[in-house]
Amino acid sequence: MTIDYSERIPNNVDLAEDRRLRRALESWQPRFLQWWSEMGPALPTQDVYLRTAIAVGREGWAHFDHVALPDYRWGIFLAERDPGRRIAFGQNKGRPVWQQVPGEYRSELQRLIVVQGDTEPASVEQQRRLGLTAPSLYDLRNLFQVNVEEGRHLWAMVYLLHAYFGRAGRDEAEALLLRNSGSEDAPRILGAFNEETPDWLSFFMFTYFTDRDGKYQLGTLKESAFDPLSRTCEFMLREEAHHMFVGTTGVDRVVERTAQLMREHDTDDIARYGGIPLDVVQKYINFHYSVSLDLFGGETSTNVANYYTAGLKGRWQEERRQDDHLLTEAVAVVPRVEGGRVVDVRLPALTALNADLRGEYAADCATGLNRWNRILAGHGLDPSLYLPHVGFNRKVGAFAGHHVSPDGRVLAEAEWAAARDRWLPTPADKAHVRALMRPVHEPGKIAAWVAPPRNGINGRPFDYEYVHL
Ligand code: BYC
Question: GO CC: one term (predicted)?
């Protein structure tokens, strides 16, 4: 199914056939472009070597070329429809999937789509100033690729709101451009999307940990009985993979450079040699992982039980699970704090689905830690990086209001206050990282705190002119 690029809004949903919808989206488009010019990348550029979706099939879906950022063709791309698709879980299991929104699930579906849609422009806002301090043109290009695709993911959700939710949907689409990351009056909906992304270590951590939450949440919405949502998320997941690649290899390259400097100078204290000390890397991991865990909601949630039973939001890889896909009898084990300790409690699996998804996510996150420790070991250093306990630094769910150490001990307030600076980035750590952030905008050159990538983009060399300033 190819994409029609002759239209003002590129799409593969036959927008030309639906004049009302097309007009509604065409009137939202200039507001999106206005938002992009005000809240999108702050660094002016001539053009950027970007990939643009040209088809939604598995093979060869992307085209690479230099594009002026405001001319990027944001559009509406849904994965191919499977005419025989049936609902895989919940009380409607086995029935054909829905092509329209059932009245009884309208508000829940709208809410899920709005929450998802809200995160996409939020991340562009958070990353807005990073171009000014990019460590290389290669990294600058990756930042902008992530940004334009998050912008496209906003389009994906706005299309659903406009096409299926009438006036209320159009109002919500409007509001997605009015809330802003970190705003006092109208903040973004979820906590992590109001945090700053002030430096490139934060950006790599964000694309590793927070974009990975995106992968898992989109994975559950891909299971949805509402077929247009499922197909939208399926294609978004394909774009999302690059964002996590940016995070994984970005942290790889920081750890690599840190290890080189530790070896070269035979010390952990590499700040004075222009590197990011390993303990600071660990603190950033602790922060970004814990903030991202909050994005899964509470361990016990009636919202998620209702979503599942109704067929709105499934589990990660629902169809590969070997159970009844109803979960009315099933039990799950979930951690919580009791009597000053973290204990496991048995709960109905249905209300514990946020914890189930979080478990899948945590196991995936651990693969990065293995990679980074292998890099350290390759330099003859202790493989000492770790993921903190799920209870560490949490603001949402069973651990909110408790202080839990990275190794899972419940601490008194004073113990936490005394140790906190060893576990989370301090103002001094952040100031050091920020001081290293000086732009390197010459082809083939790179900042001294990060190693160059192994490969360029789309077979191009590292010294390719990925961005024309
Ligand atoms: N911050 O029943 P509970 C991505 C609220 S990232 C603020 O435990 P539920 C991306 C909650 O709304 C993926 N509020 O939660 C990544 C509820 O409010 P009400 C984004 C929070 O509903 C990088 C109350 O607390 N997609 O795509 O089971 C770059 C009780 O909560 C938070 C989605 O999240 C929080 N962290 O689950 C770009 C998917 N957590 O009902 C993009 C859609 C909870 O009392 N969203 N609350 O008013 C959902 O599936 C669910 O809404 C959540 C929460 C998983 C977020």
Answer: cytosol
